[in-house]
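hey m, so remember when u said the C-alpha cells were messed up on ur end? i reran from scratch. heres the input so u can diff it against urs
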Amino acid sequence: MRTGAVERRRQVSAPVEPTAKGEGDKIVPATGRTYAGHCRLPAGRTPPPPHLERTIMLTVELPYPPSINHYWRRVGPRTLISRQGRKFRQDVEDAVRRGKGLLGKVPMQGNLAVEVVLHPPDRRRRDLDNTLKALLDALQHAGVYDDDSQITQLLAQRGEPRPGGLAIVRIGPLAIPQGIQT
C-alpha cells in the first residue's frame, strides 16, 4: 500500500471443512481451542481469537511522524505546533480524507485499540514514544476518533528502516476476551 492509503478490513473466522470423526484434531495457537476431528481448518489458516471475530479494523499508512521535540515550538510565552508538526497534521488529514469512503463510520466511537509500526527513515537512535503523541494527536485532528483518551490499548513497535520513513497504524474497537475482568 502506498503512503496515505486506507484500508477497511473485516476479520472473520476461517471456513471449517467437515472431516471424518477423530481425524485432524489440533489446537489452534491463536485461541488455544481444540478443534475436534469432525472440523478441519484449511491448510495454513487459523481463525482469529473469538474477541476479534467480525471486528472492523482501520489500517492507515502515514509518513513518519516528527519527534515530540520537533512538534512543538515556544514563541515568547506561547507554545505552538511547529511548521513540521502542522505539515504532518495536514498530511494525516489528507490521507484520512482520501480514504473516507472506505472508513465507514468516522469518527470511531467507544474504547479503541491502536497498533503502530514505525519504520524510521534511517538507522539513527530514536525514542519510540517521542513520535506517538504527534501521531495520535494528528489522527484525532483528522477526525478518526473524537478524543485520544478513547485509546485504551496501545501497542507500538519499531520496524525496519525505510527511505523517508513510514508509520503503519491499525485502529479498531477494543474487545476484551470473555473471562477477563477489567
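this time it looks ok to me. The two ends are 36 Å apart (CA to CA). if urs says something different then somethings off w ur setup not the seq
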